[in-house]
Amino acid sequence: MLLNTGSNSLDTSASALRKTSFWFAAIALLCLLCADLDISTVDPWHELSLMAAGALSPSVWSWPTLLSSLANTFSFALQGVAVAAIGGFILALGYGYSVVRGFCAFIRSIHELFWALLFIQITGLSSLTGLLAIAIPYAGTLAKIYGELFEEVDLAPARNSPAAKQPLTHFFYTVLPMAWRPMVTYTSYRFECAIRSSAILGFVGLPTLGFHLETALGEGHYSEAAAYFYALLLLIGTLRFWLQKRLLPIYLLAVFYYLPPHAQISWDLVARFITEDIVPAPLRGEALFTASTFSEFANWFSLLWQQQIWPGLINTMVLGQISLVFTGLLALLLFPLNSPLFFRRWGRTAGDGLLILLRTLPEYLLAFLGLLILGPSMLPAILALGIHNAAIIAHLVGRYSEELSLRGDANRGLNLYFYEVLPRIYRQFLAFLFYRWEVILRETAILGILGISTLGFYIDSAFEEFRFDRAFILILASALLNIGVDHFARHIRLRLHLKTTPESL
User: CA 417: distance to chain centroid?
Assistant: First the structure.
């Protein structure tokens, strides 16, 4: 059904797409059998009605607190992206080297919340913590995108120019100008993501919108929570109007003046954290290379593997697989809302507004709301991950469908969807979906902080118990899992010839 043509190669391609989709769906169905999907609240509709009432009557108990948290959220985001863009650009210059690609994959595979939890132990609840928590993983992401853009630049028109013989001149006068526009486009998108990340950092104690939002929700003050939530939506939704290129230098100077990234750092504590706290307990003694030390470490790691790493990995992969397939199904249902092939101007405007709202909501916040309504299980996480990521993919697929042209006698309604549009956008849809796979898995891990038994649950527990050695090993396990999934997704994209532009990610 995906492709209807006489070409054998295309038939083979269509068969490969169908087989891949089938196996991913089948694995997700198997994962459902061992997933915790229980609704444990006595009356979820009552809690939902209270939230709805609060959403309709937002109130602000302290305007200075709201404005301060709003300014902090914006400052962390802009500072983090600015530093990440510089770091990402430098790393992108060497992205052709496998060691650089591996380093970038590693730092972006660790979620901002995990970076924040690590730096809190060194720099405390400071502005420097917020800056580094965003800048480090975002630098890895931007390096990947910038590096791919540099590689994909069409150099044919400039191959015979004198500058082509001088690498440095060739890069700055040929490669960089041709890649500049998509670099700016994607960096702007990352800033929108950074605002969500900055808000979420409030869940670990930093004074952003997320801190006050979580506090209000946890205490049942839904009217106050609605005010903070609307402030976040307003901040993200109005970016296109006030985030102008000519004003960017002023914004940067303002945020670094308002919230300078400094912290009171005890270098003795830093040295202790690196050389002792995160070192596995059995290896902290002086007698390192002895049989008894290795035996103690083996027992220590075996116990950690059995009780935390392995269960965390399994639950993370189960939740991630279900969320990935649910994201795909929901995106296929939602993308017509953003497509001119199905809706006219006003209907499309309303549909696009809904998608903007859904993708603006951070997954962590959606999961937290779902937790309050449905109770602790995988169900709130699946819904949160699916809704947020499906809205992003639906927006991209809907925009891609604008390039399609239909015959004058094309079908209408469901026949138009299934027989005209879906076969032509399905390959692009899968490309977007597999690009988001790594992101979904990263978010899956950190949702464990809400009590879901993924790797994030055990990481958060280890930090609360000041067992930093366990936390560090668990973070490494999470990073390796994300790197593995990213590599596997890349393999699938290459095998199926799934391509999309980096600036669309």
Answer: 29
Query: Of the candidates 400, 389, 391, which has an alpha carbon nearest to the alpha carbon of residue 429?
Result: 400
- Judged against a pLDDT cut of 90, whether residue 195 lies above it is answered with yes
Among 232, 190, 230, 226, which residue's Cα sits nearest to residue 209?
Answer: 232
DSSP per residue, 199-239: HHGGGGT-SSHHHHHHHHHHTT-HHHHHHHHHHHHHHHHTH
The residue that leads in pLDDT, 130 or 291, is 130
Q: In CATH, which superfamily holds the domain spanning 62-265?
A: MetI-like (1.10.3720.10)
Read off the pLDDT band of 9 (50, 70, 90): very low
Contact 364, 198 (CB under 8 A): no
Instruction: Look at residues 378, 377, 274, 389 and name the one whose alpha carbon lies nearest to residue 335.
Output: 389
**Residue length, the chain?**
505
Cβ atoms < 10 Å from Cβ of 325: 22
Which of these, 96, 129, 139, 152, lies nearest to 499 by C-alpha position? 152
Domain ranges of the chain: 13-42+308-505, 62-265
Alpha-carbon gap, residue 200 to 363, rounded angstroms? 9
Please give the structure tokens belonging to residue 250. Answer: 């002023």
pTM for the complete prediction? 0.84
Using one digit for the tens of pLDDT, what is the confidence trace for 418-455? 888 888 889 889 988 998 898 898 888 778 877 888 89
Whether pLDDT at 292 is above 90: no
The values of phi and psi at residue 355, to 5°, are -65, -40
CA angle 449, 453, 455 (to 5 degrees): 70
Q: What is the pLDDT of residue 408?
A: 64
Give the side-chain half-sphere CA count within 13 A for 163.
12
- Are domains 13-42+308-505 and 62-265 of this chain identical in fold? yes
Q: What angle do CA 470, 471, 472 make, to 5 degrees?
A: 90
Architecture of domain 13-42+308-505: Orthogonal Bundle (1.10)
